[in-house]
């Protein structure tokens, strides 16, 4: 077991050192331009483009971004009192959360036309769709499952390592049947069993910071997009000037 990464997990998540989900790290596959003014909140892959939700009051957007150039090809601004958060696609619709307004926004996935809205209690952080439910984080250790039609809460999933809750779950993405979650203010992704809530693996993305150019106001690691057709995985961060395509590898294997 890689003791350094276990210690990092314990420090970042407030866990005892004996907690031991499988440890992974990342290898860089490719690097692409990313808007350094984008406060990235949600990230998904759709129709050979990235769709991105950005935050900050008065600056929040939903945007379509070209991968190779990083150019914003289309963008919709949110109301000034809405702070954009997680983003998910359900068929031909996009669902975007807001932080404290308690409001979800519904869009056409191809045109970004606003189609409607819905309300929910508490804060909105990350969002993904598993084919049956919307799965929503609110900054706690619990994930909410929402009905994709009524948007009413159906159940909750408590996320834990060895019975200890994992708080600050943020951006979410379904990857090969697991829920991947950025852990806010760390460079870690928790890989969560959707049946039990157990964290079965953690991905340390800290090595990516070596590939960020100097001179930018980079903030925390946040944003996971998965292309299910090719298996490619893209990640970035708030105000990061680069978006990275990564390969996830065993932490032990990367050290040999």
TrEMBL record:
Signal peptide interval: 1-19
Keyword Signal part of the UniProt annotation: yes
Highest rank taxon of the organism: Bacteria
Cross-referenced Pfam families: Glu_cyclase_2
Keyword Signal tagged: yes
Entry keywords, A to Z: Signal
PANTHER family according to UniProt: GLUTAMINYL-PEPTIDE CYCLOTRANSFERASE
Full protein name: Glutaminyl-peptide cyclotransferase
Annotated organism of origin: Spectribacter hydrogenoxidans
Lineage: Bacteria, Pseudomonadati, Pseudomonadota, Gammaproteobacteria, Salinisphaerales
């Amino acid at each position: 077991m890689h003791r350094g990464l276990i210690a990092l997990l314990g420090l970042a998540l407030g866990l005892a050192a004996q907690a031991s989900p499988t440890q992974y790290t990342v290898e860089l596959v490719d690097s692409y331009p990313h808007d350094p003014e984008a406060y990235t909140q949600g990230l998904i892959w759709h129709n050979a483009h990235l769709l991105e939700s950005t935050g900050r009051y008065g600056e929040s957007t939903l945007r379509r971004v070209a991968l190779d150039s990083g150019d914003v090809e289309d963008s919709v601004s949110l109301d000034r009192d809405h702070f954009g958060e997680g983003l998910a696609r359900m068929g031909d619709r996009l669902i975007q959360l807001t932080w404290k307004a308690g409001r979800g926004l519904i869009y056409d996935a191809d045109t970004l036309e606003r189609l409607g809205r819905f309300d929910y209690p508490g804060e909105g952080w990350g969002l993904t769709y598993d084919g049956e439910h919307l799965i929503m984080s609110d900054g706690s250790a619990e994930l909410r499952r929402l009905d994709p039609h009524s948007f009413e809460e159906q159940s909750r999933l408590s996320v834990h390592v060895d019975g200890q809750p994992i708080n600050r779950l943020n951006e979410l993405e379904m990857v090969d049947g697991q829920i991947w979650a950025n852990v806010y203010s760390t460079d870690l992704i928790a890989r969560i069993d959707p049946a039990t809530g157990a964290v079965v693996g953690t991905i340390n993305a800290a090595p990516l910071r070596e590939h960020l150019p100097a001179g930018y106001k980079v903030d925390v690691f946040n944003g996971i997009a998965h292309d299910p057709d090719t298996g490619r995985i893209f990640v970035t961060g708030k105000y990061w000037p680069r978006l990275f395509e990564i390969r996830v590898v065993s932490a032990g294997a990367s050290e040999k």
